[in-house]
Amino acid sequence: ASVVDMGTLAVSSIAAIAVAAGCARVFSSRRRSQSSVALSATRAEWYRKVQRIGQDRAMFEVTVQKPMGVKMERLPDPKNPGEFKGIGISQIVDDSNTDTLNRKVCMEEIEGMWVLEGDRVLAINGESVEFGDIDDAVRLVSTSTGDEITLTLLRNTRKGPIKVIMMPEGRSAIVRRNSRLSAAAEYAAGKELKYGCIDGWCGTCWHRERSTDGIFKPCSDVLTGDWDNVMPLVLTAKPEKAGDSTFLKPRGV
């Protein structure tokens, strides 16, 4: 597939579409209460950042300083094998402006949305490229001026990859569906990990997810279509006492 490096191209920003603008919510920097009400509101804030299309699609806008530091490529047409339909994000360069924006949105919870590998590009600066190709993207970007670019993106929220962030290191990994969570944990640790059990009963590897307060077990969990990837999966180690699966005596909560 043809690939274009968007990191070296200059672009200008446009006004956000009405729906996306209406959906945007500013996150408070203060520490939130750990009550169930506060946790539900946190998840709701993420969901309000996008416009839902059907059961498994989310549309939103992202404005990034130039150069963006992303690569785009043509997307395969699932209905016509061997053919292509539209363009999508194939890579985000480390320490680029897009990577910096992602860290601020996903870890510091600033206003706005973030970019994920696999996102389909519907428009660049308000001009549609839904059925376009790389040449259309190059034309729109190279003829624009200004300090920013606005992308209208479409994300598959149930089949697309998941951004996993392991705290406190803050290292992230993009994980495909039906992959083991241990792959992301090992990437964050920078080494192969060994576990005390293989089914999560001992509690020593348990992690809490930031937005849902749910328990995730790297030794055994598989990332399925249940996770809505509008949100990053942000995990912090919260080990329990060995065998305490009843949550009666949790540690670090």
Automatic annotation (TrEMBL):
It comes from the Eukaryota. Pfam families: PDZ_6 (PF17820). The keyword Cytoplasm does not apply. Residues 117-155 form the PDZ domain. GO terms for molecular function: 2 iron, 2 sulfur cluster binding. InterPro entries: 2Fe-2S_ferredoxin-like_sf (IPR036010), 2Fe2S_fd_BS (IPR006058), PDZ_6 (IPR041489), PDZ_sf (IPR036034). The chain crosses the membrane at residues 6-27. Keywords: Membrane, Transmembrane, Transmembrane helix. The keyword Transmembrane applies. This is PDZ domain-containing protein. It comes from Polarella glacialis.
